[in-house]
Amino acid sequence: MEKFILLIPAIPVLIAFLLIFVKQKELIPRISLFLSSMIAVLGLYGAYYVISKDTDIVGFGGLVIYNQLSAILVPYVAILGLVIRKYARKYMWDEAGYKRFFILLNFIFASIYLLVMSNNLIVLTLAWQLMSIGLYLLVSFNVGSKTAVKNARWTMYIHKGADLVFLLAVVLTYKTFGSLDLVELSQKWLVMSEHAIEDPVIFVIGLLFLIAAMMKSAIVPFHIWLPYTSEAPTPVSALMHAGVVNVGGILLNKLAYLLILAPAVLNIAFVVGLFTAIFASALMLVVSDIKRSLGYSTVGQMGYMIMEVGLGAFSLAIYHLMVHGIFKATLFLESGALIKYARHDPNIPERLSYKVFWAEKTGHKSNQTFYLIALFTIVPVLAFVGVKILLTDDFFEFNAAIVILAFAWLTGTQLFLSFFKVSRSDSIKVVVALISTFVLVLFTYEFIGLTFEHFLYGEDALLFYKAATLNVTMLSALVMLAVIMTIGWLFMYRQHFVEIPNTDEKPSRLKWLFYKLLVKEGFYFEIFKSSKKGKV
Amino acid sequence: MIANVVLFLLAAGLPYYLLLEKSKFFSSKNIFILSALLLLSAIVLSVYIPNEHPVSLVIISFVSSLYTIYKASKTTNFYRLGYYFIFINAPFFILFEEKGALYSLSLLVSLIGIYLIGRFYEKHYGSANYLAVKGITLATPYISTYITVYLLCIALYPPFPNALFFLDDIFKSASYGLWLFVVIVLFMGNFFLAMRVMEKSLFGKPNTNIHYVDLDTKENIMHLIILTVLLGLSFYGLKEVLS
Predict the structure, then answer these.
(1) Which of these, B38, B44, B33, B30, lies nearest to B13 by C-alpha position?
(2) Which residue has the higher pLDDT, A472 or A324?
(3) Which of A311, A383, A453, B155 is at 20 to 30 A from B50, Cα to Cα?
């Protein structure tokens, strides 16, 4: 019975095939929804089976597996798929190519399920490439739009690059380790990790897989495809930001045991992820286009995800990608509904958050920047140390957790500031909101993050942290945390609380250059255009 | 050695289309048919003759392949594109030795599809040139689907057989510097050309000055037969690559 679960990747293909013969437009989403709900049911049953029996479901000669990772991700993707299909049912109704859309949507879901459930590097390669082509056809869905087609072309170039790098990594893995079975390879890598190995080939393999993951997950410098694909239909954007970009994290989780053998790759992942997180988050605040802003927000979150992998927190990356996926899909799907309301009402629909944080209040002004900064940096650090002292010594099993928490806190504050657009007069509410965000992140990490970790990797998780250790002492980590928070807060404060100057004072040249760098999105397109003309 | 040279001339040869394109007696349609027949002969012969080419022949075919990529990037004609793709992929026939024939066969099947599309364009739009007949995804969905499939096949995307035989070959071949270089260049070359055609033919707004015609039942059946052959090859390719 449980073997039926392994048919999950075939169900969307079956749906797509059935849809070809459906003549009535109303039936297209109904069939798609009904059969894809079966995937969700099968996925949940599979999760129950894996958790209750504590065993994996393997089939098709070991090519496909339903393990702990699948038990988490398949139901997530299936439920996300249901929501997207349900939304697309009405949203896409008037678009040309309604049936084509549902067929393509099912194909890309099939490739995601296959990727998650693959236990063989060949199957993984096939799913990896299928996803590229599915994405290309969906991003260019609006075939009449030149910009949509152009952006789809860029997306495809980067994804083809990822396919090539991935292929080279797989060939090299096969030639080095003599197997394509992921379970077998993981066991082999685990045994190898007991002794110190310095093999440049393993480093190259790890690096190639990391680059492939970076390309698909829109990590700098391969990020440019994501912010520019927002012209795709809203359900596609939701799928892209909640599902497709996550494959980099999923791939690195599947190869976690390989990366123990190549700690340098983990360190590179940390640096690249950290840079992406900061750079893309800064760009998010500066770009003028709201869709691109959302795109850069996703790039920043993917940076965090890769950074977490670089710190050895593989399971946290999975948790992060799921939470971010749900959040971003909600944002994209809600935006469509909001536009609909806004067409009838010139004011943005009022919400609780609007009333609490945004509504204009006059009569009270405070300008105590210094106290606020002190409060925002010292209170969380004190709370952090307090919790650390109160609980056991191994509350944080690695110092780098502090860096993750700092960034999680910064993201939370950024969200509050960006989406609720707090005004200066509401500073006390902002303080409460920011501190509560931090507390929420802290406890979520502790309870859910570590539960994930135990479920996915058990005791082996410690090996990842050990491999990724940056040798940071607790004291220096705390200093780092305080510095990051101060810089982050100052940056956000200046972004959102900036006063309109009364004098004609010009900004300094350095500040102006920095702003120009961000506004021009790192001069990415200028460099490309210059090189095209042969100037560079 | 002579047998290998014969195989090389049949499958890759020197780019004889350079001479034939200048001749008034050979249209691009005829050049495609001739090229396809020569490749087919090479595929059949390679069953009887061991396909083991020296490196020098690989280099020659690779250089001609690079030149053909350049030529293919300039054309907007389906027939020309057909025989250009034969020459672009010739180094794979040589490099992949025993498996090269299967790769070339699946390429040939997809190119026959492209040829039929070219014939359809010639019949309904006056020439096999696709540049003016834009936006067919919305206007003529059947023909757009077939073009997409053939081009994805050529661009080496699974689950189509070209990609599967390619995968099988790269796993089972002994790799070396030149091998790696040729494989990477042609992997990307096929992709860029196929994407270029896809973008210029499938996408865009339909031209209001053109009366768009989609495939009739007979033509549909012919393309379905090609798809079935590709599907069969895909199953075989999958079996091979997973074995």
Answers:
(1) B38
(2) A324
(3) B155
CA distance linking residue A436 with residue A438, whole number of Å: 5
CA torsion A295-A297-A302-A303 (nearest 10°) is: 120
CB contact under 8 A, B175 and A175: yes
Phi first, then psi: what are they for A502, rounded to 5°? Answer: -85, -25
Distance CA A74, CA A60 (A): 18
pLDDT-derived band of residue B110, with 50, 70 and 90 as boundaries? very high
Angle at A337 between CA A332 and CA A340, to 5 degrees: 130
By Cβ distance, the residue of A122, A167, A171 closest to B242 is: A122
Reported ipTM: the value is 0.90
Count of structural domains within chain B: 1
pLDDT tens track for A398-411:
555 666 666 666 66
Domain that holds residue B63: 2-242
**Is the CB of B157 less than 8 angstroms away from the CB of A130?**
yes
> What is the model's pTM?
0.85
Q: Which amino acid is at A445?
A: Y
Q: Name the token pair of A293.
A: 């802003």
> How close B145 gets to chain A, by Cα (Å)?
10
3-state class of A66 per DSSP?
Answer: strand
> How far is residue B145 CA from its own chain's centroid?
17
Summarize pLDDT for A98-156 with one digit per residue, the tens: 899 999 999 999 999 999 999 999 999 999 999 999 999 999 888 888 888 888 898 99
Q: From the list B138, B191, B241, which residue is nearest A97 (CB)?
A: B138
> Residue A141's closest chain B neighbor by CA?
B203
Mutation site for A-interface testing, chosen from B179, B199, B200, B240 by largest number of A Cβ within 10 Å? B199
Q: What pLDDT, in 10s, does the model give residues A19-71?
A: 988 888 889 999 999 999 999 999 999 999 999 988 889 988 889 999 999 99
Instruction: Compute how many other C-beta atoms are within 10 angstroms of the C-beta atom of residue A268.
Output: 19
